[in-house]
């Protein structure tokens, strides 16, 4: 048993300071690379979550406008409303659900043909100020037809 320990230990009595510093530097480089990857993955997940919520909000707001009676929409063009600050004139109680805190919505309507007042293009832009500044996260368009 004593012979095996001597063979494994060799002639060295311990680790030198240089060896310890080199080992710590290697562990530090690996840790920095690993933590950098975690930070990138975390930012990507947060952006994906914001984009998914924005798309859901934009689709629901577009469907809300498309399901309204055509006569409720304004006749002066282009028209717009903003949530959460400026609800539409036909639904002053309209508000964003609490789960969309930090988001804002801009909805605009415009005529597609000037000689035919039966088709409007509806555009919904969703903004999230803390990450994207004033740029929209997503923009969807659809058409409202008087049937």
Characterization of this structure:
- By secondary structure, this protein is of the alpha+beta class.
- It has one domain: GSPII I/J protein-like (Pantoate--beta-alanine Ligase, Chain: A,domain 2, 2-Layer Sandwich).
- Helices cover 43% and strands 23% of the residues.
- The chain has helices at 2-9, 17-67, 129-132; strands spanning 79-83, 103-111, 119-128, 136-145.
In summary, what is this structure?
The protein is an alpha+beta fold and 147 residues long. The chain has a single domain, classed as GSPII I/J protein-like (Pantoate--beta-alanine Ligase, Chain: A,domain 2, 2-Layer Sandwich), CATH 3.30.1300.
Which characteristics define this entry?
four-stranded antiparallel beta sheet, alpha+beta, rod-shaped, Pantoate--beta-alanine Ligase, Chain: A,domain 2, 147 residues, single chain
Show the helix and strand layout.
Layout: H1 2-9, H2 17-67, E1 79-83, E2 103-111, E3 119-128, H3 129-132, E4 136-145
Antiparallel strand pairs: 1-2, 2-3, 3-4
Class from secondary-structure proportions = alpha+beta
What's the CATH H-level superfamily name? Answer: GSPII I/J protein-like
Please work out how many helical segments DSSP would assign: 3
Rg measurement, Å: 30 Å
Distance between the termini: 95 Å
Question: Topology as H/E string?
Answer: HHEEEHE
Strand proportion: 15-25%
CATH class reads Alpha Beta
How many domains? The number is: 1
- The CATH architecture classification is 2-Layer Sandwich
**Uncertain regions spanning at least 5 consecutive residues:** none
Strand order of the largest sheet: 1-2-3-4
> How does the overall form come out from the CA principal axes?
rod-shaped
> Mean pLDDT, nearest integer?
86
Give the % helix.
Answer: 40-55%
């Amino acid at each position: 048993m004593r012979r095996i320990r001597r063979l494994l230990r060799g002639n060295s009595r311990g680790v030198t300071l240089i060896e310890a510093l080199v080992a710590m530097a290697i562990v530090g480089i690996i840790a920095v690379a690993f933590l950098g990857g975690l930070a990138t993955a975390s930012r990507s997940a947060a952006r994906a979550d914001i984009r998914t919520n924005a798309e859901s909000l934009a689709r629901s707001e577009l469907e809300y406008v498309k399901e309204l009676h055509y006569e409720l929409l304004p006749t002066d063009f282009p028209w717009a409303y903003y949530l959460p600050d400026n609800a539409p004139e036909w639904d002053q109680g309209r508000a964003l659900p609490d789960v969309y805190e930090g988001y804002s919505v801009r909805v605009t309507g415009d005529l597609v043909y000037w000689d035919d007042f039966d088709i409007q293009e509806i555009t919904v832009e969703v903004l999230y100020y803390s990450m994207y500044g004033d740029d929209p996260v997503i923009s969807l368009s659809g058409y409202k037809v008087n049937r």
